[in-house]
Amino acid sequence: MPQRPLSVGTNADADWWRQAVVYQIYPRSFADADGDGIGDIRGVTSRLPYLADLGVDAVWLSPFYPSELADGGYDVADYRDVDPRLGTLDDFDEMVTEADRLGLRIMVDIVPNHSSDQHVWFQEALSAAPGSSARARYVFRDGRGRHGELPPTDWPSSFGGPAWTRVPDGQWYLHLYAPEQPDFNWDNPEVREDFHTTLRFWSDRGVAGFRVDVAHGLSKDLAEPLRDLGHALSYQPDALPDDGSHPLWDRDAVHDIYRGWRRVFDEYQPPRFAVAEAWVRSSRRAPYASADELGQAFNFDFLNTPLCAGAMRDTIDTALAHAREAGATSTWVLSNHDVVRHASRYALPAGVGKSGVEAWLMTGGREPAADLNLGLRKARAATLLMLALPGSAYVYQGEELGLPEVADLRTEDLQDPIWVRSGGRVKGRDGCRVPLPWTREGANHGFGSGGSWLPQPAGWGSYAADVQAGDKESVLELYRAALRLRRDLVTDEALEWAGTDADTERGLLHFTRGGGWHVLANLSDAPVALPEGTVLLSSGALSQDRLPAWTTVWTHA
Ligand code: GLC
User: Fold this and answer.
1) d(C-alpha 235, C-alpha 142), whole Å
2) CA 134 to each of CA 124, 137, 166, 175, 180: distance values in angstroms, whole numbers, following the listed order
3) Running along the chain, 557 residues long, what does each successive block of 10 average in pLDDT?
4) Separation of 538 CA from ligand 1 center, angstroms?
5) Is 68 a catalytic residue?
6) What three-state secondary structure class fits 81?
7) Taking Cα atoms as reference points, which of 451, 557, 463 lies closest to residue 36?
8) Top mutation candidate among 74, 174, 177, 418 for ligand 1, by most atoms within 8 Å of CB
9) What residue ranges line ligand 1, CB within 6 angstroms?
10) CA–CA dist 192, 223 (Å, integer)
11) Which residue in the list 267, 325, 338, 503 is annotated as catalytic?
């Protein structure tokens, strides 16, 4: 296929991603054009004008590939096709053409750590003999115990339970996630070559970049004997060693894989770009993001940082320093398809922490009581803060509508494998994946005519895009105004802190960007004086010359 031009405005701009706003679409929950209750590619195409109007630069699509949906599409059966329930490759091409016309770039999700168990290679591996080349594309081993009845190691799956499943001939295969997601063996050149083919396949179709799933997991220490983890069973970034010595995660050898990917990206003009989903210590993020590897690495620190000035300032400084070290820019993320939506996180009493948020979900959102008004106020303040930072902001579908988490989904409706694998102890991620409300009225609030694969809750219509459009006070109009202004305001990648330590202690974050752009976030319970200059935008109503509690303002000196 001839290479399609990326005809987006600044076509030749290889650095478009450095300060871009990228909108994440979870395709099954975005818009359903064919009315089967599942969002699809034509649904995405139909809503691209909305995204252009919102003012984002690029759209990242979570997986839309053929999948048995054991993990919402992150179990890929064919990396170079579209799931028939979501459309066809022609639909995909039409989407890219429409995106080009609107000046939007398309990014796709690549899931290289594991395939689906329905992938033709895994099916071949199952019917092949132990020791065969078909099995060598995955990680098969004999078990321990007299009859091999015990898993080869103590490695846990990230979704709960052991990371090994036994096949009828007695061998075990590795899956760091669900059993339906067997891990590839990246020591195998055939696996490496096949992913290069996949990267070229989508690049040839006009895709501008890739989000790389579980980027820190591909390289494993598979030398015999495999090493048990003993007590160090946690996969949390801070529990990982800082020298790359973990047998499974963030090993130095993984970087060789991405240097190979960079050579593929650089075959294109402009070169393709990628962002790593790497749950590693922040001090080990830089190599993933370097110019000879993927280009950028997700910084998820806002997901776990309380909305308090000191902690936010430290997080921002650390992220900027690590991005600089890599020659990259930082990313900023308040929500995505794996976490409780931030309008709800901020609605919970300060200090509940990550486990408190999980516990809240388990009570169906009843305990502790959430203050949704305050949560939304804080979410708006956090958004204006995030959108003013140097680097790229990743916006998750529906956050521009101020959607809360749907915490009270009935357990029989849950689809996330975490729910079953944890034996009903962890509710999982479905509450942030409920199909979007586009219209107050109409079937499924405009999502599609044929139902909704996760039920939309009562009151969902009050968040609909058509209710908010044109209402100056709405979250949607706040995002639109901020993104419009940001286009003009963003200059270089520098940030200067303006406040004193005492200001930070009072809950204030004050910084300036090039060209006289001032940003003041009041993360405290009391009003404060406005910064100098003309007010451009604020996350909540101002009272004369005061900046109210939990409000961020942009001014121009
Ligand atoms: C990533 C995805 C998540 C998925 C997991 C396994 O963390 O964001 O949704 O479950 O990888 O592919």
Assistant:
1) 24
2) 6, 6, 17, 17, 17
3) 45 87 98 98 98 98 97 97 98 97 97 98 98 98 97 96 97 98 98 98 97 98 96 91 95 98 96 97 95 97 95 97 96 98 96 92 96 98 98 98 98 96 95 98 97 97 98 98 96 94 96 96 97 95 93 96
4) 35
5) no
6) coil
7) 451
8) 74
9) 71, 74, 111, 177, 213-214, 277, 337-338
10) 19
11) 267
Tell me the two tokens of residue 252. Answer: 């130095």
What are residue 23's DSSP bridge partners? 59, 395
pLDDT of residue 8: 44
pLDDT of residue 547: 97
- The letter for the amino acid at 503 is D
**CA-CA distance, 357 to 351, in Å (whole number)?**
10
CA atoms within 13 A on the CB side of 213: 24
- For atom 6 of ligand 1, the residue with the nearest CA is 74
The CA angle 218-233-138, to the nearest 5 degrees, is 30
The single residue listed with the structure tokens 């990206």 is 265
Measured torsion, CA atoms of residues 103, 211, 489, 330, in degrees rounded to the nearest 10: -160
Q: Which of 227, 264, 266 is nearest to 249 (CA)?
A: 227
Of 403, 391, 387, residue with least CA distance to 480 = 387
Give CB contacts under 8 A, 24+ apart, made by 508-513: 508/309, 509/309, 509/312, 509/313, 509/385, 511/388, 512/557, 513/388, 513/390, 513/489
Phi, psi of 28 (to 5 degrees): -65, -15
Sign for the CA dihedral angle at 168, 171, 173, 179 comes to: positive
- Would strands 534-538 and 551-556 be described as parallel, antiparallel, or unpaired? antiparallel
- Give me the helices (H) in 371-415, please: 372-387
Q: Report the distance separating Cα 477 and Cα 555, nearest Å.
A: 18
User: Which pTM value belongs to this model?
Assistant: 0.97
From CA 252, how far away is CA 220, in angstroms rounded?
10
Tell me whether residue 535 is exposed, middle or buried, using C-beta atoms within 10 angstroms of its C-beta: 0 to 12, 13 to 18, 19 or more. middle
To which H or E segment does residue 324 belong?
A: helix 309-326
In angstroms, what is the span from residue 458 Cα to ligand 1's centroid?
A: 29
Angle, alpha carbons 404-405-406 (nearest 5°): 115
> What is residue 399's DSSP assignment?
G
As given in the structure block, the two tokens for residue 59 are 């759209």
Tell me the CA–centroid distance for residue 359 and ligand 1, in Å.
Answer: 21
DSSP state, 18? G
Other C-beta atoms lying within 10 Å of the C-beta of residue 481:
16
Contact 139, 122 (CB under 8 A): no
Total Cβ atoms within 10 A of residue 68: 14
Q: Please tell me the residue having the least CA distance from ligand 1 atom 7.
A: 214
Active site residue 213: yes
Query: Can you say whether the dihedral through the CA atoms of 267, 272, 273, 274 is positive or negative?
Result: negative
